[in-house]
Amino acid sequence: MAFICHLCGAALDVGEPVSRDAECPACRGDVRCCRNCRHYDERYNNSCTETQADPVPEKTRRNFCEFFYFSREPFTGAARSSSREADARAKLEALFKKPKPGGGPGG
To answer: What pTM, to 2 d.p., does this model score?
Structure first.
């Protein structure tokens, strides 16, 4: 199975267990980091679904987490939640949209 870099989307030729010093050949980003882990989820405390893992402040940097397991999720890059985010932003903008001059009652 080919793994995908969380930063650039390049295919990675790494085996498991992933060594701590593994880097993406395309962007030189750290491979063994929270963003590439199956436990990474921004909706959880410390962005991690593993309750026994120690907090890691830098999610894109290599670390010593013993619960690391390479995510099998397909790479979606920054667009991972962009459609949901865009929908929420559109609703907020509509909610706080200023009325056009002369468009209101009695105008």
So the answer is: 0.64
